[in-house]
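Reopening this ticket.

The earlier resolution said the output was attached, but the attachment link was broken on my side. Pasting everything inline this time so it's all in one place.
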Amino acid sequence: MLFFPDTEDITATTRTALALLVAIEQRHTGKKEVAYENVAQLIGSSSSWVQKFIRDSGEVRPPCAPLLLRISAAFVSASNNKISETKIVFVI
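Inline output:
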């Protein structure tokens, strides 16, 4: 049996990923507004859309498929960068 997540699940997961991207970028830049701008530029959107989507204000529609894929790719890339920056120490 195949499981296909519903639109609400995809939207919620995308919202979380986008918020994490902004948080990661804010750590790098030190400014939230700059982080919104940088993430928006990375995914090909506007910073106002990013802010409204994260806030779940109802003012913007969920992302279309191409934007959803760009958000996903940016999140995977950021996650891979964080993993490679983290030193893993094994204790035996």
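Reporter confirms the inline version is readable. The radius of gyration is 15 Å. The helical segments are 7-29, 32-43, 47-55, 65-85.
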